[in-house]
Amino acid sequence: xxxxxxxxxxxxxxxxxxxxxxxxxxxxxxxxxxxxxxxxxxxxxxxxxxxxxxxxxxxxxxxxxxxxxxxxxxxxxxxxxxxxxxxxxxxxxxxxxxxxxxxxxxxxxxxxxxxxxxxxxxxxxxxxxxxxxxxxxxxxxxxxxxxxxxxxxxxxxxxxxxxxxxxxxxxxxxxxxxxxxxxxxxxxxxxxxxxxxxxxxxxxxxxxxxxxxxxxxxxxxxxxxxxxxxxxxxxxxxxxxxxxxxxxxxxxxxxxxxxxxxxxxxxxxxxxxxxxxxxxxxxxxxxxxxxxxxxxxxxxxxxxxxxxxxxxxxxxxxxxxxxxxxxxxxxxxxxxxxxxxxxxxxxxxxxxxxxxxxxxxxxxxxxx
Length: 368
Fold this sequence. Notes:
Layout: H1 9-38, H2 43-63, H3 73-90, E1 103-105, E2 108-110, H4 112-131, H5 138-157, H6 162-178, H7 183-203, H8 205-215, H9 226-237, H10 263-296, H11 300-324, H12 342-361
Antiparallel strand pairs: 1-2
Helix pairs in contact: 1-2, 1-10, 1-12, 2-12, 3-4, 3-5, 4-5, 4-6, 4-11, 4-12, 5-6, 6-11, 7-8, 9-10, 10-11, 10-12, 11-12
């Protein structure tokens, strides 16, 4: 008798808890802002709730699609082509806050870099599956990946969106390392990349100011250091149990973008250490169960795909929370599943649906 397929319940529950938290906290963080800007306190709540419902629906759909279908060339090349064309098209849009990251489709904002993440993960997983036995032959195994990653990240840098570009590089690096690339190449690449990243950081005046503000935010409390100072005030005043839902103060035009990049600060202020820790536990569970799924996957493609999807979520969460707590310079990377933003939420939930499908096919043998 065929084994009945079962999804990872802990992985699903942690994801669902984060999405539910998102709907509640986006409303709490944005109601006053939405009233002032749109005269509708439920503006962001309706948008986020709609995306959440659509995302959960897509998660349910992708959970039921055999992940091995994604290794088909027509799927991979179509995803790469659509993502690349969208990244090119967005460059011709009018800038929003000095960047070109979104374009409207039927009145809905779409961020093509989110689709590019998924396309690259599928591409790398499929190619590495076939070539990982010769992974240390650079021209054979890594040059095709380098070309695809170079094109996609190059287009993302033109927007500009350095945070997403770095996230993509980290995800691909994790997949290549998991495929068996010698640590010597990883170390060599890191030694070459670090000076380049440093030059990029200090080459533009605004990035240089942002770095200096990270090192000493109080040197410019009303300028570059304003965001991190307000974020730390929000987290610090929350105490153990928080001020209570909707009772936060920093979201009232003190904390920039309280419903997007700095929503974790609002959680810390209103739900306290208990609420902030609960969010951390959810991401820890997703990371643990995602890596467990990779280890127990029935084939290389599933394992590499699981590693890519897990790294995508875990790294974004790590960077966002680190920024909010003043451990990293400010970067515009949303908190997965929680921050307001339809494209990010939808792609993250599609990724979780694929990961849950891989977990269905994972080995039923007991863990050592």
